[in-house]
Design a protein that fits this description.
The protein is of the alpha+beta class and 146 residues long. It has one domain: Roll (2,3-Dihydroxybiphenyl 1,2-Dioxygenase, domain 1). Helices cover 21% and strands 39% of the residues. The protein has an 8-stranded mixed sheet. Strand 6 and strand 7 form a beta hairpin. The structure holds carboxymethyldethia coenzyme *A and cobalt (II) ion. Carboxymethyldethia coenzyme *A binds next to strand 4, helix 2, strand 5 and strand 7. The site of carboxymethyldethia coenzyme *A has 23 residues, from strand 4, helix 2, strand 5 and strand 7.
Length: 146
């Protein structure tokens, strides 16, 4: 089951400037920040609210760390803006398998490490009406029964 909007991923050229925009405009503060070298991003998670499934919803602000990262490529083509959406689930493996069985391309064979030690995978945007879609299980949220 997918039980929350975990985050909306927003690509930007200058993370510090973008963090300041969200702070000054809306009062959102950085909950967590990290560099994910595998994904080629420096990111800030701004927590918006807790959710009824024990998780939370965030904005994920993303700045590329290298020219060959997927976000750098996307920014060069589109400029800044909404890059992906992410749905939260207690069992990303089961959800990915279920969605793959519907003929939608799942990008990773095995989920990879995302923000805050979550486990993540992606669905191809061309199979999802033009929306790059991520599936997330937060650290500590995994349950086989989900
Ligand atoms: N949203 C919607 N469409 C997208 C897209 C996006 N974010 N990124 C690419 N596309 C579209 C392109 O516009 C292009 O369409 P056209 O052929 O009609 O022009 C098509 O998909 C192929 O795009 P591309 O520029 O050639 O890019 P690639 O195929 O090399 O990569 C994708 C696309 C989805 C496979 C790649 O971006 C990917 O692996 N993404 C998952 C990882 C990721 O995004 N990591 C960063 C975030 C990390 C995190 O959230 O923690
Ligand atoms: Co994301």
């Amino acid at each position: 089951m997918l039980t929350r909007i975990d985050h909306i991923g927003i690509a930007c050229f200058d993370l510090d400037k973008t963090v300041e925009f969200y702070r000054a405009t809306y009062g959102f503060e950085v909950f967590h920040s990290e560099v994910n070298e595998e994904q080629g991003v420096r990111e800030a998670m701004l927590k918006i609210n807790d959710t009824g499934d024990g998780g939370a919803s965030y904005l994920q602000l993303l700045e590329p760390t290298r020219e060959d990262s997927t976000v750098a490529k996307w920014l060069a083509k589109n400029g800044e803006g909404v890059h992906h959406i992410a749905f939260g689930t207690a069992d990303v493996d089961a959800q990915a398998a279920e969605i793959k069985a519907k003929g939608i391309r799942v990008l990773y064979e095995e989920p990879r490490r995302g923000s805050m030690d979550s486990r993540i995978t992606f669905l191809h945007p061309k199979d999802c009406g033009g929306v790059l879609t991520e599936l997330v299980t937060a650290a500590g949220q995994h349950t086989e029964a989900a």
